[in-house]
Amino acid sequence: MLYPILKILFRLTFKVFFRKTFKHHASRVPAHGPLLICANHPGAFLDPIVIASLVNRKVFFLAKGSVFKGGFAKWFLPKLNVIPVYRAQDDPTQMHKNQETFIRCFEHLGKGGTILIFPEGISITERKLRPLKTGAARIAIGAEEKYGSKLNVHIQCVGLNYEDPHTFRRDVFVGFAEPIRVNDFIEENKTQGFEAAEKLTEEIRIRLEEQMIVTSDPETDLLVKNIERLYKYDLMKQQHIDAKDKTGEFELTKRIVKTVNYFREKDPGRVINISGEIKQYFSRIDELGLSDRMVKSDEKRKSIFSKAFADLLLIITGFPFYLYGILHNYLPFIGASWLSKNLIKQVEWRGAIGAAAGMVFFIIWYTTLGFFSWYYFHKWEITSHPGWMFLLYFISWPATGLFAWLYYRTIYYISKRWLMVSLFFRRTAIISELVLQRKKLIGEFEKAIEERGPISEL
Predict the structure, then answer these.
(1) How far apart, in whole angstroms, are the C-alpha atoms of residue 80 and residue 77?
(2) Core-most of 12, 194, 305, 326, by most CB within 10 Å?
(3) Structure pTM?
(4) CA dist., res. 149 & res. 168, Å (int)
């Protein structure tokens, strides 16, 4: 009973927590039959909740046995369909219990169930796939062997691509690969035991990376992100990719990674120079409190005064709604934010804890506020239809709460624009220099694309 309730609550929570959730080929997930879901693991506790909320099946989860310490965890986690798996790095004396875990997984798949596993065995927020453990492949093959190859187990590989899993109102792109039919794989390789598990694990790796943005190291990742920040939307226009086409944007980023890797191998010195120049450019922008979008607008010679009146009108007319939204939503929001930032030391857990805490805090806050509001609407007889008035009042809380956040962000960007106006008058030479520096960087990218060939063909 607890699982379906939490699934609904988290679906609603993610509609607020994420700005957009994009599902690529979600229809590939088999609707019936035994299924093992394998995914990358950049967001700790957030990852299983995101996947379970998107998949229209009841999901069981494999989690490290160390989280089962304590009486409450042993009682509560099984109610959420969590199955313990034991790792040598946590406690080598518990490894013998994995035999029981494997048997439970075989039996669950034998009943046509779904199990989610993260074969990397560790959660780190980075755009790469760490070496995979063979456990997922061994479970899939072992289940087929136990039931005489009659189960028809499939492995569904899912790639999680967060814009930032630890920050409120960012995007997430979830890619679903073509599922692997385990029996077909076993028959094709004509192998059993550990060799088959290794080959199947390699196939899982390949299909996961197809659905992920994968960079080789932090320096490459930073360079790719900076190129995206500076040049991706120009490339999208060149490739006729609509701003709302997140699949096209995802594929474009993969091609940018390919291009960077190509030049790192062919001309590493050039890559180091461009990387240094683009870092310097963004460092200067950050020091001035500007954004690349502001410099780009100036480069196009758009009037920096054109939106001043509209900005002022928005600030004045939106402030009452902003204040209303703050009054009704600030305490649970700031409580969840403070908890995730100050009490959670491991960065990979912050997004998950923030989302979960926010859900709990808002439920408690809205329930309490709703109780008193309902009582006073009826007691004071404000209207002849207190029920309808209360309902409208209740609906206004989350609506104006989201507006308050958007208003805050809008004011932030308006302040940047006004800062640009101030700098335009006081430090015109610096702005002109940034514009020229940006043009130079764009020119370098254009030249690289010309040498490498059309990016659409990569």
Answers:
(1) 5
(2) 326
(3) 0.88
(4) 45
